[in-house]
Design brief:
By secondary structure, the chain is an alpha/beta fold. The chain is built from ten helices and eight strands. The chain has an eight-stranded parallel beta barrel, surrounded by six helices. α1 runs parallel beside α10, α5 packs across α7 and α7 packs across α8. The two termini are about 15 Å apart. The model has no long low-confidence stretch (mean pLDDT about 95). The structure holds 2-phosphoglycolic acid.
Length: about 250
């Protein structure tokens, strides 16, 4: 039985004070033990403060990105060691916004995944096709390339989470239907089966793209959907807790 994950990606939102308040409301709003994991990913400046707020709670901390070196002359970058120090258990890698605006490639994502695992961070690796690619009918080949690329040279999958996020569904309110999402999730699980054998049964594959408390139940009911990576709806306690409540 795979443990579900609901992860909130706060993107470039919230000051330290706002982040702490949101984290506190989420922590206090959670009811009892569940069969899943709740994760929040504040911006870098708020990680340490949110990490302190969440200490001893059931909510895990994630970063939204990192660099693939432990330390050194890399002005403006943040290392996995620093993320661990701030209390992170997870790190989101290869988000489509990073690929689009910051030129991340399958190769750079792969270097980061390797480094995250070596540092004891669990990567949430994002993949997904653009609108144009879906129309062209190349969704599977795009996702195939991204998954193979991100996981190249990685032997142990225990700590890896994949997030399928169709780019056309991110921040658009245009959620994939549960059937559309499941089709790609099953494809990813089959691909991982091809690469890693029975380990594919244990890997968690999250859906992301316009997830809300009103559409999560249908998505999460699908065989190969193990939770959600949530952007917009994770910025308000009610929206986020409403999603978590549907998973329990
Ligand atoms: P969204 O973002 O929920 O606002 O569509 C999801 C994401 O980018 O992870």
């Amino acid at each position: 039985m795979r443990k579900w994950i609901v992860a909130g990606n706060w993107k470039m939102h919230n000051t330290i004070g706002e982040s702490v308040a949101l984290a506190r409301a989420i922590k206090e709003g959670l009811s009892g033990p569940t069969n899943g994991e709740v994760v929040v990913a504040p911006p870098f400046t708020a990680l340490a403060a949110v990490g302190d707020t969440l200490k001893g709670s059931a909510v895990a901390l994630a970063a939204q990105n990192m660099y693939c070196e432990d330390k050194g002359a890399f002005t403006g970058e943040i290392s996995p060691v620093m993320l661990k120090d701030a209390g992170c258990a997870y790190v989101i890698l290869g988000h489509s916004e990073r690929r689009k605006y910051f030129s991340e490639t399958d190769q750079s994502v792969n270097a980061k995944v390797k480094k995250a695992l070596a540092a004891g961070l669990k990567p949430i690796v994002c993949v997904g096709e653009t609108d144009e690619e879906r129309v062209q009918g190349v969704t599977q080949s795009v996702v195939d390339r991204q998954v193979r690329g991100a996981l190249a040279g990685i032997e142990k999958l225990d700590d890896v989470v994949i997030a399928y996020e169709p780019v056309w569904a991110i921040g658009t309110g245009k959620v994939a239907t549960s059937a559309q999402a499941e089709e790609v999730h099953a494809f990813i699980r089959d691909l991982i089966g091809e690469l890693y054998g029975s380990l594919s049964k244990g890997i968690r594959i999250l859906y992301g793209g316009s997830v809300t408390k009103d559409n999560i139940a249908e998505l999460a009911a699908m065989e190969d959907i193990d939770g959600a990576l949530v952007g917009g709806a994770s910025l308000k306690p009610d929206g986020f807790l409403g999603i978590v409540a549907k998973m329990t």
